Amino acid sequence: MRIVPINFCIAKMQPQYWFAIANKQKTIEIRDERVDADYFIFQRAEGYLLLGEAIITSEQVLNVGTTTLPDGAGTTMSELEHIYPHAIKNGVLVKPLYAYSIQPEALSDIAFDVLEKTI
Questions:
Q1: What is the pLDDT of residues 89-101, one digit of tens each?
Q2: What is the mean pLDDT of residues 47-72?
Q3: Which residues of 47-58 are buried (b: 16+ CB within 10 A; e: fewer)?
Q4: Alpha carbon of 15 to those of 21, 52, 61, 71, 109: distances in Å?
Q5: According to the model, what pLDDT value does residue 107 have?
Q6: In 3D, which of 94, 90, 97 has the Cα closest to residue 59?
Q7: Which of 4, 68, 69, 112 has the fewest CB atoms within 10 Å, i.e. the most exposed one?
Q8: Helices marked H in the chain — which ranges?
Q9: Tens of pLDDT, residues 25-50
Q10: The dihedral of CA 90, 45, 24, 4: what is its sign?
C-alpha cells in the first residue's frame, strides 16, 4: 500500500458562504493566490471556528481584464472588490485570481488535526 500525502489549505470565510457551499449553491472558491492543495478547510473569518471542508476538483485562472465570475462563485465582482481591492478595480481584474471548483465533504479527523496544529 502506498501512502499519498493530502494537502490542505486553511481558508477563512464568513459563515454564509460556507452554508452556500454546504448546500451546493456555491461551487467555486475564488482566491488571490494559487493554492497548492487538495482540500480547503474553512474557518470562520473571525476566530477559529471550523465551518467545513471541501475537495478541490479543478483550478481556473481568471485573467486580467475579466469582468465576470464563473457560475457557482456565489458572489459578485463588486463584493470581491472589497475582499481583494489590490486585484479588482471598478469591477475589472487588474491582477489574476484563481477559481477553484469545490465539493463539500464530511469533516474528517485530518481536518481537526490540521486545525489543532495551527491554533
A1: 999 999 999 999 9
A2: 94
A3: eeebbbbbebee
A4: 10, 10, 25, 20, 21
A5: 74
A6: 97
A7: 4
A8: 15-22, 77-83, 109-118
A9: 999 999 999 999 999 999 999 988 88
A10: positive
